[in-house]
Amino acid sequence: MQEKQHQKAFLKDEALHVDKLLGLVHTNVWGLAKTPSFEGARYFVFFTYDFFHKSFIYILKPKGKCFSKFKDFQAFIENQTREKMKILRNDNGR
After folding, report:
1. 43-to-36, 52, 92 alpha-carbon distances in Å
2. Quick one: fold of 20-90?
3. What are phi and psi of 19, to 5 degrees?
């Protein structure tokens, strides 16, 4: 018998009204894909900023490259928008 795994909700005082371009950015890592891409990638990392709900996807071969892709994303998006990222929220995955 399998049970649903529950995750605690974010605290109510952390509820945000996003009024700035990079006020809140969500991230998630997906993988291990059963079938690799043509270049051998099996993981994806997603970044979505709440203000416009715009998403960016980076394809990864090893999962350990997530932080370097985050740094690439942060440099790119802060350069494009001339704003600083305020809050990065993830799903507390491994």
Report:
1. 9, 25, 16
2. Nucleotidyltransferase; domain 5 (3.30.420)
3. -120, 5
